[in-house]
């Protein structure tokens, strides 16, 4: 048995916990998968490294609208793939080497571990690790629906699809959430024929209804979207392609495809952690229960010295949230007398598809419920990109900013943007919500560069006509 001051399960966001505070202490980092976790190896970073060239490829077909003929000659899938993973694999390998070989106080275990009690873990080969403090940062993994044929080699998840040898001619994407939306765009921009089977319509239905409806409408022009459609089985054809059986609003049909991407959500990795041996509380969806200080709970009470962060315990499966929670834990590990709480009030998210989407705060439905319950009036504005000078320059017909605020106070409740660089345009709105800036002061208390696209945000704020306006 080896005892540590700190043991961290998971080298994704967990890896950032080893601050200089631990230089003189014994730390174990334990990871049974690829060093660096999801975001680096199979998540945010490689996907966005595909999204950017996909935007370049897609620009070719859009340019003619503006009087510029651009032809897309070829997408070099292998070159793109190798450029991406040469960079990423080196970061993962270098990070692993640093932890494994270059720090005297850190021991790296390349193994899955399970809890055997509150403060004790066991590796796959039976080594016991105990620690004064344990952080569970074990992430999540793709969930595979129970469909016959899921085990065919042509069936991929986001874990494997980015490393395939060649761009498929036809791809069937099962699911209508974030991963489906991003890969739908990448593969379609690269020239594959994309079909998306979404069990329930419209796509991205967890987002604000206007976004979800208008996104579904926009991408239905780019790829074949089948709403309210279940994939009931997958079978291999003699030529190596796959025949999918679909059950949709018009009844049963079949579809031949070369590759299937399953994007039907992710489950927290708690089922492989021996949680029952330690008795920690789980949420109904399998996440570890934590309090606002990121302490694991047992019987509803915080457990001394055991913490959870990121996808394994969070309400949000987002890297910036995992990073925020890691900063909370990093502080709390060394300041037990002055615990800091995580702040989940204004968590933004972006979907890097085309059109791009970004949102923060309440959806319209949530804001209606919230304002009604509090007896205050709701102000709502939708401003089209096409109503601003930059929107004219782009001949934009799909982009918009939707804002929700309390009418009298001008307090912003939600912001939803769809269109060019939505993930950047939303940042001042996140800032306003985080620091309590009301809509009218934000609109008129600063210059907005003319004729930048940010004017669409300025005009949306002005359109809200909230009580604090002139
Ligand atoms: C395709 C895709 C695209 C994404 N894009 C974005 C994006 O653009 N923006 C965004 O904010 N988020 C994005 N996300 C989500 C983001 O990647 C995750 O929220 C984030 O990486 C979670 O970090 P984590 O530290 O909680 O877990 P991880 O980074 O997954 O780390 C968990 C680690 O724990 C290890 N582990 C698990 N169980 C055990 C065990 N029992 N013993 C030992 N080790 C174990 C795993 O091997 C893994 O390395 C994306 C996700 C995917 C899949
Ligand atoms: N840009 C980003 O921030 C980003 C990008 C990718 C992933 N992520 C994170 O990863 C998480 C997982 O992504 P995801 O797209 O897999 O999940 P998701 O929750 O966004 O979407 C899952 C989709 O699958 C559908 N579905 C579920 N079971 C199904 C079944 N049996 N058959 C058909 N459809 C089914 C759901 O209706 C939903 O449309 C996201 O929720 C997000 O938090 C973030």
Describe this structure in words.
The chain is α/β, with parallel strands linked by helices and 470 residues long. It folds into three domains: 209 residues, FAD/NAD(P)-binding domain; 110 residues, FAD/NAD(P)-binding domain; 109 residues, 2-Layer Sandwich (Enolase-like, domain 1). It has 13 helices and 23 strands. The strands form five sheets. Strands 1, 2, 3, 4, 5, 6, 17 and 18 form an eight-stranded mixed beta sheet that branches. A hairpin with a 2-residue loop joins strand 17 and strand 18. The longest helix is centred in the N-terminal third of the chain and has 26 residues. It is globular, with a radius of gyration of 24 Å. The model has no long low-confidence stretch (mean pLDDT 97). The structure holds flavin-adenine dinucleotide and nicotinamide-adenine-dinucleotide (NAD). The site of nicotinamide-adenine-dinucleotide (NAD) has 22 residues, from helix 4 and strand 19. Its cofactor is FAD. Keywords: Disulfide bond, FAD, Flavoprotein, NAD, Nucleotide-binding, Oxidoreductase, Redox-active center. This is Mycothione reductase. It is an enzyme of class 1 (oxidoreductase).
CATH superfamily membership of the largest domain, which one? Answer: FAD/NAD(P)-binding domain
Top CATH class of the largest domain: Alpha Beta
What is the level-2 CATH architecture name of the largest domain? 3-Layer(bba) Sandwich
Q: How many beta strands in the DSSP annotation?
A: 23
Radius of gyration: 24 Å
For the residues shown, what is the average pLDDT?
97
**Overall domain count:** 3
User: Sheet with the most strands?
Assistant: 8 strands, mixed
Strand content: 25-35%
Principal-axes shape call = globular
Give the termini distance in whole angstroms: 70 Å
Task: Please estimate the helix content.
Answer: 25-40%
Query: Which ions, cofactors or small ligands are bound in this entry?
Result: flavin-adenine dinucleotide, nicotinamide-adenine-dinucleotide
Strand-pairing-aware structural class:
alpha/beta
- Spans where pLDDT lies below 50 across 5 or more residues: none
CATH topology of the largest domain: FAD/NAD(P)-binding domain
Count of helices? 13
Keywords: Disulfide bond, FAD, Flavoprotein, NAD, Nucleotide-binding, Oxidoreductase, Redox-active center
Binding site for NAD(+): 175-182, 265
Binding site for FAD: 48, 311
Disulfide bonds: 39-44
